[in-house]
Structures are given as C-alpha cells and as structure tokens.
Design goal:
5 helices, 53% helix, 101 residues, mainly alpha
Length: 101
C-alpha cells in the first residue's frame, strides 16, 4: 500500500489533500462506492461474507491494537480519542493474562 500511495503522490501535497478523490477532485460518494465497487468486488470473492464498508474501520483498529500499536496513535489515525478506542475496541480485544508470580 505504501508503494502505491507513493507512486500516486502529487508534486504538491498539503494536509487537506484527499488520498482517493472522486474524478472531480471532491469526496467520493459512499453510496456510489458501496453499490458499484464494494458489493461487486465482495460478491466475486469466494468465501468472503458481505460486510459493510464501514466495518473495515473496526478491523483496522482491532488489528492495530493486536499488533501493539499505541492507542494514542490509533486514535489519532481514525479521528477518535484514546478513551473511545479503549471503551469500544481495546476492552473487547485485549487478552487478559494472569502473570506467573
């Protein structure tokens, strides 16, 4: 993914630039993307149960935490507070291990 993003990176980059803009340069219409792209791709993949596009966010957060990414960094990436990440994700995905004393 990093290679792809670097290959499409423009010469002038600003913080407000969209990574995947619509053909007109604006925001991508989520309903259009869901119906024309997401659903059609998932139906062609064997053994992949349909999931809403938004569920990829939950998967990303859970995998980031499972791979020891700092909660503050995850929160910043997804636009939440660390408290929200703890309440909705970290508390559900943490494996509690009792240490040997």
């Amino acid at each position: 993914m990093a290679t792809l993003l670097k290959s499409i990176k423009g010469n002038t980059v600003c913080a407000d630039a969209k990574v995947f803009p619509s053909p007109e340069g604006g925001w991508i219409d989520i309903h259009n993307l869901t119906n024309r792209g997401w659903k059609s791709i998932l139906t062609k993949l064997d053994g992949i149960e349909y999931r809403k596009l938004y569920q990829t966010r939950h998967t990303f957060i859970t995998l980031a935490l499972d791979n020891k990414m700092d909660v503050k960094d995850v929160a910043k990436l997804v636009g939440n507070s660390p408290e929200v990440i703890h309440r909705h994700y970290a508390g559900q995905s943490r494996k509690i291990v009792v240490p040997d004393f």
